[in-house]
Amino acid sequence: MARPAEAAAAPPPEEWSTWRYRDLVDLLAPRLAAGASLVDLGAGTGNTLAFLRDALGLGPLLAVEQDPARAQAAALLGCPVLVASVLDPAALAPHRAGFDVAVAGDLLHHLTGSSRGASRALARTALELARDLVRPGGWLAVLEPTFRPLAVATAALHLKRAVARYRSRRLELGPRWLNLGPPVVCLHDAGELRRLVADLAGVELVAVTERERFAPWPLRRGRATLLARRA
Length: 231
Fold this sequence. Notes:
The protein is built from seven helices and nine strands; from the N terminus they run H-E-H-E-H-E-H-E-H-E-H-E-E-H-E-E. By secondary structure, it is of the alpha/beta class. The protein has a domain at 22-38 and 96-225. It has a seven-stranded mixed beta sheet with strand order 3-2-1-4-5-9-8, sandwiched between helices. The chain has a two-stranded antiparallel sheet with strand order 6-7. Helix 2 links the parallel strand 1 (38-41) and strand 2 (61-64). The longest helix is centred in the middle third of the chain and has 17 residues, at 116-132.
């Protein structure tokens, strides 16, 4: 008698690309002492946190990740993990003013509300909570993909959400960045990111690195790395 087919094992969580963090390493290296502490918000599998640890000679670390599978992968890399949402003030409160650096890497565009304004409000809340994790004189770093024109990005937010109601996997339309369905994202342009960070109370935006990436006209894709210092 044939045995029932075994359920397929879940694929391992996807790792974030470490090349996205090279500009941040260049910005932080001259500003940090050896053994500095760092909290990574939305840390995923922890591979980017491990990259920063090795590149910058970091000391105490904390990975904040709400997905249990990704959090487990981060723990296997030796990263202390807080399994919580980056928008949960109660979970983050015990760590307030506890770190030299807080990193929000490719996080903000995943915080989506019913509109661009609602998504921007979630991003602002996440940055306020991230700021509160940094001790005075420490650093808040934000890394994000950028996209223009914003009208197209806003249309994509609503279209991706509509498709995600019927699909559990993304629908590829060409290059990996061009897709519909999950994950639903709200992409920002560099100016919007600058305003989000610069408008935070108690921080000063001190450095911005922008890089353009290929996209067919009139679309403009890129990446921005922003560094702010807490007063």
